Amino acid sequence: MAWLEKWGWWLLIAAGLAFPLLASNDYLLTVMGKAFIFAIATLGLNLITGYTGQFNLAHAGFMAVGAYTVGILTVDHQVPYWIAFALAGVVTTVLGYFIGILSLRLRGHYFSIFTLCVGYIMFLVIEKWEGLTHGTVGIMGIPAPSLGFITFDSPLSLYYLALLFLVVGVWAMRRIVGSLLGRTFMAVRNSEELAEALGTNLMRTKTLSFMLSVFYAGIAGALYAGYVRFIGPDIAAVEHTFDMTMFMIVGGLGTVLGPLLGALGMPWLTQYLQFLQEYRFLVFGPLLVFLVIFVPHGIVGTYLGWRARQAAQKSEARRAQD
User: Which parts of the chain span the membrane according to its record (predicted)?
Assistant: First the structure.
C-alpha cells in the first residue's frame, strides 16, 4: 500500500498545480492560497496536539508573532522580506521555547487554559503596544516577496508560492512524524508515565514538539504577512486557533493528511454557504456535531481505522486457512 500512498500525494500536488487552470477568477486563487497558509499552521498545531497530546490554544498568537516580525522589520526597518521571513521563524521558535518550558509543566486542561491566557496576552500586547505594533491600525504596506527579478505580487504567483511552502511543510512533517522523534512524541501522547518509564525525557520531548509546532505557525504567519500585505491584531485572535482545531477534528487528529484536507476543505464549505449569510451556521453547526458524533476520528482517521480492521480480518482468515 506504500506505492498507493506515494501516488496519492503526487496526485494532490498535481491537483494543486492544476487548480489555477480551473479557477474562474483571482478570488478563488486568493481563497485557496490563504487556505494553504492556514494548512501550514494547522500542521504545526497537529504536531503538538495530535501527535504529542498537548492542546495549545495560543497557536494563533504564535502565527501573529511571525506575521508581525515580518511586518515590523520590513515596514519600520526596511529589512528585506526573506531575511525578515527567516527571523520570523527564529523569533517564534525562541519565544516558543520560553513559553513551552513554563506551560508544559502543566498537564491536560490546565495546559490548555494556561496557553489560552498566553494567547490572549499576545493579542493584548499586539493591540496596545502602538509604538511597536501600530496598535489597532495595524501594519500596512508590507512589501511583496521577491526573488531576483521575480516579484510575487499577483494572485497567481502568490498562490504558487504558498503551494510551494505547503508542499515543503508537508514533506518535512512526514519526515518528522515517521522518525524516531515522531514515535517518541506519540509515546508521550499515549502514556506519559509509560514513556518516562522507558527513559523518555518528558520535558525535553514536549518542549521540542512545542518549538517545532510554533515554528510552523511562525512561518505561516510570515508568509501570510507577505501574502495579504496588511496585518492587524485580529490575526492573534483565539478564533483562528479554534478554526485550526476544527480543521484537525474534521480531517483527523494525529495524521498528516487529515488536518491538510480539513484546512483546504472547510474554507470552501463556508464560502459556498455564504448565500445563507448569518444563517449558514444553522447548517454548518449541525454538520460539525454530526461529524464529531459519528466520525470522531475524522475523515482520514476513520479511513485508516477501517483499513486496519480489514487488514486484521484478512490476516485472521489466512491463519484460519493454515
Answer: 7-23, 29-48, 55-75, 81-102, 109-126, 156-173, 208-227, 247-269, 281-306
Radius of gyration of the chain (CA): 20
Q: Max CA-CA distance within the chain?
A: 76
131 phi, psi to nearest 5 deg: -65, -30
The answer to the question of residue 304 being in a domain is: yes
Number of domains in the chain: 2
- Residue 142, phi then psi, degrees to nearest 5: -65, 130
Same-domain status, 262 and 309: no
Q: Which residues pair with 147 in a beta bridge?
A: 150
Strand segments, DSSP code E, in 75-179 are 139-140, 146-147, 150-151
Amino acid in position 111: F
Q: Please, how many CA atoms are within 13 Å of residue 26, restricted to the half-sphere of its CB? A: 6
Global pTM value: 0.91
pLDDT digits (tens, 9 = 90+) for 203-233: 999 999 999 999 999 999 999 999 999 999 9
Residue range 153-192, pLDDT digits in tens: 888 999 999 999 999 999 999 999 999 999 999 999 998 8
